[in-house]
Specification:
Length: 191
């Protein structure tokens, strides 16, 4: 493996971890977090299984933040990249706290609807919804840690991604204008 491939590997690990973390958070918002037996009510309405999106608002915005971080990782360098890494570590830790805290399970059950058997069971927490959120938090946290640790050594988008000749042509034109002035010509009267 060449040295340039070795230097790009941590960058790709960060990008893939952020993309997978965003997908896990997005998925967590749609997965069931609480399995509700038929006939149980919330505020007088029949309740269905509750997904992450039903219980809380944070999974989708934090998934979008992880996606935006991919673009930022590719665009910034040096100290800014390390600051982004620290921010991602904090966001990953926040996701873990929110997913494991249990406040999402505090739902005001109002009782059983008439005609339903109360012995049908009680609401139960599921595994996959919170597990997807935890996986997303871990991936964002690990991406941030790697970015903080090795971010200054990772490559970034450089001159090869900018418009060809844009800056150079501007410098050449400016140089020609100054040369014309030095030769005693008026560069504004040229055709």
């Amino acid at each position: 493996m060449s040295e340039s491939q070795a230097s790009k590997r941590p960058l790709w690990i960060v990008v893939v971890a952020l993309l997978l973390g965003a997908a896990a958070l997005w998925g967590a918002s749609g997965l069931t977090w609480i399995d509700v037996p038929r006939g149980l009510t919330i505020d007088g309405r029949l309740a269905d299984d509750l997904s992450g999106g039903d219980l809380m608002t944070w999974p989708v915005p934090l998934a979008l933040l992880a996606l935006a971080a991919v673009a930022a990782v590719l665009a910034v360098r040096g100290v800014a990249r390390r600051i982004l890494g620290v921010l991602l570590v904090v966001v990953g830790a926040l996701i873990l706290y929110l997913a494991l805290n249990g406040d999402a399970y505090d739902v005001a059950w109002s009782g059983w609807a008439p005609g339903y058997d109360e012995s049908a069971g009680s609401p139960e927490r599921t595994f996959w919804g919170p597990a997807a959120a935890v996986a997303g938090g871990v991936l964002v946290l690990l991406a941030g840690a790697l970015l903080t640790w090795r971010g200054h050594r990772m490559p970034r988008m450089g001159a090869k991604y900018s418009a060809p000749g844009g800056r150079r042509a501007e410098k050449d034109t400016e140089k020609e204008l100054w040369d014309a002035l030095s030769d005693g010509e008026d560069p504004t009267t040229r055709s």
